[in-house]
Every structure is written in C-alpha cells, then in structure tokens.
Amino acid sequence: MTTKHHPHETGARLIRGATGDWEIVLGLEVHAQVSSKAKLFSGASTEFGAEPNAQVSFVDAAFPGMLPVINEYCVEQAVRTGIGLKAAINLRSVFDRKNYFYPDLPSGYQISQYKSPIVGEGAVTIDLPDGSTRTVGIERLHLEQDAGKSIHDMHPRYSYVDLNRSGVALMEIVTRPDMRSSEEAAAFIRKLRAILRYLGTCDGNMEEGSMRADVNVSVRRPGAALGTRCEIKNVNSIRFVQQAIEYEARRQVDLIEDGGKVEQETRLFDTKTGTTRTMRSKEEAHDYRYFPDPDLLPLELDAAYVEAIRESLPELPDEKKERFVAEYGLSAYDAGVLAAERETAAFFESVASGRDAKLAANWVTGDFFAALNKAGLDITASPVSAGQLGALIDLISDGTISGRIAKEVFEILFTSGGDPRAIVEERGLRQVTDTGAIEAAVEAIISANPDKVAEYREKPKLMGWFVGQVMKETGGKANPQAVNEILKRKLDG
Amino acid sequence: MSALTDLSLDEARKGLARKDFSARELTRACLDRIAAATPLNGFITVAAERALAMADAADARLSAGEGGLLEGVPLAVKDLFCTQGVLTTAGSHILDGFVPPYESTVTANLWRAGAVLLGKTNLDEFAMGSSNETSYYGPAVSPWRAAGSEERLVPGGSSGGSAVAVAARLAAGALGTDTGGSIRQPAALTGTVGLKPTYGRCSRWGIVAFASSLDQAGPMTRTVTDAALLLRAMAGHDPKDSTSVNRPVPDYVKALDGGLKGLKVGLPKEYRADGMSPEIEALWARGADWLRAQGAEVREVSLPRTRYALAAYYIIAPAEASSNLARYDGVRFGLRVPGRDPTEMYENTRGEGFGTEVKRRILIGTYALSAGYYDAYYARAQKVRTLIARDFEAAFETVDVLLTPTTPGPAFGIGAKTNDPLTMYLNDVFTVTVNLAGLPGISVPAGLDASGLPLGLQLIGKPFAEDELLRVAARLEEAAGFSARPQEWWTA
Amino acid sequence: MSVDEGTVRRVAKLARLRLIEAEVAPLARELSGILAWVEQLGELDVSDVPPMTGVGASLKRRADQVTEGGLAEEVLRNAPHAEDGFFTVPKVVE
C-alpha cells in the first residue's frame, strides 16, 4: 500500500532513455457506473442507448426549483464495493458541489464527495502474467453524478447536448500511485472489473461507458522523488489505457531528456493516432469551489447496516482462487484463471462437482477456452453447457472413451450439441475394453508382421509402432492400457 | 362587490361555504381590484382566465359539498414558485419566457385544498433584496404613504408584491418565501402578518432556489388566523425534498385558542444595541406589556452572537446562491445571448440576464468559496452559524418564545437605500438570525409610527412549534388591535 | 480584505458574468466594503466549533425505481434553441 517499498522492483519494468533508465509511476481514477435502474438523485432510467434526452427528469436537466433525493440502492452498492475492496466504510459522508461551467453539466455543479467520501482506504491484489501478485492501494471511493454528453460532429455550428447520462451514479475509485507499468495498470483494471462483477455493483462494460479510467502518469529516475504528473482523461478500454501510458511515458522521458519540463495538465488520448494531447477546453486553471451541498444532509449509515451488507457479500476472486487451490488441488495459475470471472468460476465448479477437479480444470482451461476463443464467444454464450462438459468428462473417467476420442466428441458437442453419451453410442465411439477383441487384433498384427516382431527383439522402442497399428485396426476405440498390456504379453512372452 | 375583497381569508372561506357568494364572484372582485392597482406594480403576471376557471371548478365542488380547506379562496403567489403552465420569472430577465412544466409542491398543496391562483407577484430578483427594487419588472410600491406625503415607499422585500397584494386587499392571502426576512420584513412594513415556518416544514421543491439551507416558504395574510389556515394547507412532508421533514401537520387553527398563562417570553437584550430608534424600542416594550397583561412571564435573555449574524448570512447566502444560479446559462430555459463559444455565450447571457444586486451576490459568493478564501469566509461563517443556533438553543431552555421588533424602522422611500448595499442589508438585522438557526418566526402588525406607517413585532419559536407561535401571535394581534389600512391613493 | 478591479474581473470570469467596464470599479468598492464588514467574524473564536451546513437530521433516500423519463419534448420546450432532440450550444472545440 505504500509507495516507497516495492518488493518487486525489477529492471524489466524500467524504460530506457538516451540518458539512462526511467521508472513509470501510475495511479488510476476509475469511474464505475453503479448498476442501478434509476439515477443517483432522480427517478430517470439509466438504460443504455435511448433516444436523446428521453431519460431526463427535470432534476437531471437542472430546472429551477428541482431538488436531489439520493437513490438508496446506489448507497448500498458503494458500501458493498468498499467492503469488496477491503476498505474502511465511513459511517458519515458528505455530498459536495463541484462547481464548473460546461455544456453537459446542466446545474453548473457536479454533486460529488470531496472531503468526506463514503469509502476510505483499501487494497486490491493484482495478478500479473508471470503468476506473481502485487498490492495496489485504494485511496478512496466516492459517489458522484455523471455528466451528460456533448456531440460535436452533428452540426457545423453547434455542439449538441444529450442529458441522458446526466445524473447517472458513478463510483469513483482512486488508487495510490502504486503501479509501475502499463501491464500492471491493465491487470488492476481487469481485477477491479472482476471484483465489481462478482459484487454485481457495476457491469464493467467499458464499451458502453459503464467503466472508464483517468490515468495519472509520471516518470522518475528509479528511487527518486515523484515527477510531475499528467492526467489522461476518460480512457475507455484496457488496450487504450496501455497505449496511452506507453505513449505518455515515452513523451515525458523524451521531453525531460531534451531539456524540457513536464507541465501538470489534463490530456486527451486520441484513439486513432494512439497519442495524447493537451485538452484545450480544460486549459483554464480550475477553482471548483467545493462546498457541502445544502440540498442534501450528511449521509449517515449505522454499523448494523454495513455489517448486513458485509454478511451478504459473495466469495470474491482472491478467496475463490485460494479455495480452488486448497479444495481442488489446482495450481495457483489455473485457480487464478478460473476465478478471474464469476461466470467462469461458476462454470468450472459446476463441471468439477463430483468429478476429478484437475481433469475438469484441464478441460475448462484447455479445449473449452480454446474453442470459445476461436469462436469469439463469451462463456455466457457457450454452446456447450457445464452439464454437457461434465457428462463428457464422466465418459473419460469411467473408461467409456479415451481422451483422444473425447476431443472428437467435444468438437461435435460444440458445433452440433447433443448428449455426449448418445453421440458416443450413435457414432460407435465407445472404447473397446473387450480383451478378446483386442487380443484378436494384436494377434493379427503380429502374424502379419514377422519382420517387425524380429526387429522389436532388438529395439523395444518399436512397441509404439505396434500400439499405433492396433489403434488403427480398432478405429482408435481400443483402451490404450489394455492394448499395451496385451502387446507386451504377446511380444515378450 | 368590492366589499368581498375586504374579507379576511377565513371570512371568505366561511362565506363561500355558506354560499353567501360564489368563488367566481370573489375571484372576479379580486381581479378587478388588481386591474385597478397597476400603480402598485404588485403582480408580474395576472392569470385572470385561469383564475376564473379555477373558481368555477371550486364553485362546482362547493355545490357538490366537496370543498377543501381553502375551497374558492383567491391567492397571490410570489413569482418564485414554479407554476405549471404559468410564466415564472423570479423577477429576473434571465428567466424570460420560462413556463414551468411542473407545479411546486407547496402551490400544488394549495390547489388541492381548493385555492384559486390569481397571479404571480413581484419580488426582488431571485429574492435578493429587502425592498423589491431589484426586480427586473420594476419596484412594487407600498399602498401605504406617510401622512401628508406623496413619496412612493417600498413594500419591503423580497416578497414585496405579495405584501402589496395582501395589504391593498388584492388577494385574500399570499405566498412568500423567506431566506433572511423576505416574508416578515415586508409584512411588518405593510401592516400584514407574515410567517416563516421552521426549515423543513414546507417543501422547497419547485421553488426557485436562492440559498437552499435558508429558504422557506410561508403565508402572508391580514390576520393570524389566516396565516394558520394557509400554513396548514401548505405544510407537509415531501419525499422530493431531502430537507423536508416527515412529521404530522397540526391543526394550526385549533391551536390558536388558549391564553398565555405561564408562557415564558424572552426579550433578547442584544437586539437593543446599535442605536435602536426610540419609536421601535417603545413598540417593543408595549408588545411585552401586552403579553405580560395576559399572564405571560416576560424576561430578558441573551443571544450573545446576534451581532455577527448578518455578516455570516451575507457570506452563506451568496455562496449558496452563486452555485444555485449557475444553472441559468442560456441552454435549457430563459434568456440566451449568443456568443462565439459556450463560455462567451454564458458570459453574455448571465451578464445581460442578471441585475446588479444578483451579480454582486454571485461575485461575493464565488469569492467566498474560491481557493484560498474558503476557510476565512465560508467555513468561518458556517461555524458562526453554529454558534448562533446554539444561542437560541440555550435561550429556549429558559423561555418558550422570543419577542423582538421585526425591522429597525418603517418603510422607506423608493431609491432611498439603493446606493449602498450595506445599508440595505441592515434591514434584515432582526430577521436573519431566525433563518440561520432554522426556526419559525412570525411578524404581527403592532402599530403605526409617528408618520402613520405600520410597524411589526416578531415572535420567534422553537423548531416545529408553529402551533404555539401562532397562538401567542393571535393574542398579540388581539392586544395590538391593529385596524389601520392604507388610503387608496392608487385608484385615482 | 480589499478587492481590486483585477480580482473582480477574475471572479466574474469564474462565475461567467460579463461585466461592462463601468460596473467593475463600483463592484470592487462595494465588495471591499462588504468583505471589510464581514471581517468582524474574525472576532469570534471558532476553533472547536463544527460548521453548520444545513438544518435537519438524517438524509432521506429514494427507492431504485424508474419514475420519470420520456419527457424529451417537455424538457426541450423551454430551450432557447434545440435541434434534432438535442440542446445546442455554440460549437465546443476539445
């Protein structure tokens, strides 16, 4: 949680400049839309994709005399998220007005929480591609209103203003400057999104804008004091966050090495060019004149309310991962992959229930994920259900089919569906365990290939060739263990 | 027919119920009188046709025996309340042409009780003023004149037009709002009754906001009974206003009965300071005597931080206003003055749309909240506010109500105080403390000064003790026996 | 606290108020007067006093129900200028 000690400080995360190495220091402010039906302070809908200004109450459009009343569900989700981030819940928080003029901010102020947020300090463990983990400190989480949307390309002389998003509830989650690479920032967002989805407090859909990030980037010589930071506003995908960081860090290093100075400013990421640039409209120095919103009293929660929410929390990714290792004997890596998304974990647990968990994990992370990836499908749209995959695994475990045949059956399940056992029966894929039949096949091959038999006496490695022939003869259905045993007995005996 | 307009609200209500006259007749009488009173400039909008239609509907309900508490009673409404389908200006150029698509909770409550909307009354722009002179629509003029003078006098403010409507018998009663004295001060200056309820008693939803933590709607009437009736219909919990309080509304009219035996009345000694005029001091003493004569126990109390109230108020109210008025930007309603980009459009619109006093307060408020000054001004004023509220809490441990003058003096001439904002602000010196502490206060006409102009006395009560406050006010009213009324110079 | 004309212009800019030149000097004078008068608040010791930001006890809450919307026409009706179902402002350059 501290910014000073980084046990994993390694050269790999430094970037090289003309005058030596530089370290990137990153902090994030993630705006996550609360998964509520109505807005934070009004009864207008939050649904995505409505006609312009169709989801606007007179409160959202800041008509004279309109007053805010807070949505209790949004309060509950903020507390829930706070607990999920292992953070302190503040039993008293205050809504402030952040005053500034902008066309998509109808009241001329945003209701937010400045000095007294609903959630205080917490922590998120991020999982890095090399299997290691790191802790990113959470500074705070507060509730605030989203602004409307300005559209600049629909008219030659006017910007259009749509207030459908005006007043939608956001949780702003602010991290400590604890990340040191674009991969870590990406891992943080992925992990945060997983936690939010587990909790059900935000759908994490970055394409529809329900999650976006402001990225604070600065560079410094390793171990030196923090450099001047730039804030890149409103980046709306993990890939763009990474691109923006890479570009911005390089820009700052080049600037400093050329004798320049980084100016603290707000920048915009251009998704077309992959570059960042100064936001002209935000150039003017800000003086937000925060003060407690006199239309709203302080938000007071009682400890029992918070405890009741704590009790109702589901198992979160980190706990689930630990349990997968302990309960199913999975590797930390597999457990992490399976626990990363709530749906994946549920799918796996359903497949593994009453079966060989490692085999289930191999199938889910192996053929199953590969097939989904190839088809570009989300697990929720999988053509193969957990029940079907489980039944398939049952056929392997009880010796009905071999692993190789199982792959064939899986292909059929994925493309045409059906019951795995019925597929095996219809297509005659049942494994031959009848030793008589296998013995007959073995004898036929031995008698047809006396030269190979002689050769085998010199080179026992030729066993593999015989196994192959028998499998060919039986159409791959022979139980490989039985084939081995019988061959060995006949050839050696 | 003009005698109908002389009836008090309660008398009118009873006459209507008895079918002595119809709501249409009464409304027509008011409309005629309003039409003849244009020199008073009390109304910004007269909704004549709509008023008659509402009166007809009231008559129909009265005939069917379904009349509400205020069935058929014609009222004037300060043009700060949003009224669905009726122009609402807040006395400002910036709300040009704004017709609200919604009805404020308080006015909706009145129409549900059967009342009739005559029109929207003049006010200081965004309720910022104590004389009604900051209105974009020109000053409202008091029906009162000093003896032997033709000087036009202010009716007080900011609810000046409502005070005019009640004092000149243009309406049976009126609605005002009070942020620092805007109901009580004009009531005192026009010889009428004005009540500011406890903060949270009446919903603020649909009232154009000035200073959200101080604003409160209230009745302006010719009698205390009328104020009780009107408040009963206005008050109540509103789920749309986070600061509206969920507690039952007592029957304020029933609560009017009863004497003052054993009542403890406090006279805050700090109100005497700062060169109070002998005339006001004498009126105050007389008021105390009236209460004492009815069995009340009158004693001096101390509100030690009183002298800081006005300064705290003139930081807090402008600060909240500077933010509340940010929404007037030329985008969604009202005036728009074009510009090359949004910023220029805002600056042009707001520069042209707001009058001088509003600009002054927006600037003070913006300054007081800006980086580097917040702690010195806004935060400090909020702390002083706490101390002022504590002063009242302490006083109310020993007394039930407080008696004070409402204003430092009688009505003044139009233009007499417009050159110096500070002099104007001093009009609120006895009333702002009540808003800062969120308490109920009522001004009752108590007498005339040497030149024949009305003066008022203020009673201040404990939170949500409007019933007790009204009872004491009724006894004060009886003792004062105020029966003077202005000469009708305006009907040429 | 004395407010000079530069401060008046800066605060007016922050509040988006176009002032005509003739307004600036009187406003500077009036604001200085008002703020000088407000200085008296400094006489009180408020070090241990909490600020009073409003009147009342607990914040009321609403249920998460969609109760409003579909009002685009009414929401836009009072707009000085609207097109294609949108409010408009002079073009913003990002």
Describe it for me?
The complex is a heterotrimer of chains A (493), B (492) and C (94). By secondary structure, chain A is α+β, with helices and mostly antiparallel strands. Helices cover 39% and strands 19% of the residues of chain A. Chain A folds into three domains: 11-310, no CATH class; 315-426, no CATH class; 435-492, Orthogonal Bundle (Arc Repressor Mutant, subunit A), CATH 1.10.10. Chain A is built from 15 helices and 17 strands. In chain A, the strands form four sheets. In chain A, strands 1, 2, 7, 8, 11, 12, 13, 14 and 15 form a nine-stranded mixed sheet that branches. Chain A has a three-stranded antiparallel sheet with strand order 6-5-16, with no helix packed on it. In chain A, strands 4-17 form a two-stranded antiparallel ribbon. With 492 residues, chain B is α/β, with parallel strands linked by helices. Chain B has a domain at 2-257: Amidase signature (AS) domain (Amidase signature (AS) enzymes). Helices cover 36% and strands 12% of the residues of chain B. Chain B has 15 helices and eleven strands. In chain B, helix 8 (278-293) links the parallel strand 7 and strand 8 (297-301). In chain B, helix 7 (224-234) runs antiparallel to helix 15. Chain B starts with 8 loop residues before the first helix and ends in a 12-residue tail after the last helix. The mean pLDDT of chain B is 96. Chain C is α+β, with helices and mostly antiparallel strands. In chain C, 36% of the residues lie in helices and 10% in strands. Chain C has helices at residues 5-14, 21-38, 72-77; strands spanning 61-62, 82-83, 86-90. Chain C has a two-stranded antiparallel sheet with strand order 2-3. In chain C, helix 1 (5-14) crosses helix 2. The radius of gyration of chain C is 22 Å and the shape is flat. Chains in contact: A-B, A-C, B-C. At the B-C interface, helix 9, helix 10, helix 11 and helix 12 of B face helix 1, helix 2, helix 3 and strand 3 of C. Strand 10 of chain A pairs antiparallel with strand 3 (86-90) of chain C.
